[in-house]
Amino acid sequence: MKSSGPTVLMASIRMAFRLHAAYTKQKEHEEALETALNDQRNAEASLIDIQHMLHRILDTTPTLIYIYDLQEHCNVYANREVVNFLGYTHEEVRAMGSDLFKNIMHHDDLEPVARHHARMEDARDEEVLEIEYRMLHSDGEWRWLRSRDILFARTPEGRGKQILGSAEDITKSKKAEEALSENEKRYRTLVENISDVVFSVDLQGRMSYISRPSPGCSASPRRSS
What sign does the dihedral 54-169-70-77 (CA atoms) show? Predict the structure, then answer.
């Protein structure tokens, strides 16, 4: 009877190699899993850092940042309460209910804002649209706001659903424009009602303004040699 010793030995060696290979594969799998877990933990930590930085930026900027749903007609996100931006209390907001924006937006701006939102539904992905409008502050003053909006999300049909926007208070610049326009009107009224001719000439000697035509007065005076 042939001895089975070599066969048993070979089988044992083969089993040992298989066990070693399985152990090595398991270790590689565990190491890969640990690497993946470390990568995931690092990614989560980086995401937390980014979110923290983003929140710090949004909380400190004086600009109102918002995500507005074009179908629900409401903000789904804002870095600060729009009502706090305009000085209202939560009790005042609750009292106005769903008519909040109708109550505090200037009547003449309701239709332009509605047209702006309609345009946003068909806007291109990178297209930024602007609009200026007035909102009533709690102190009774109309505040001018300028919004810059870009598409944030679309419907399954490809229409604009949500917009990401920023709104800034431009009341001071608007008042400055109005004051400048009023001063120009006063100046023209003044110079057009005096007997003398008032005119202005640019650096090239061209007449840019004259209060009234006068015989012998050229619209393009020559420079003296």
Answer: positive
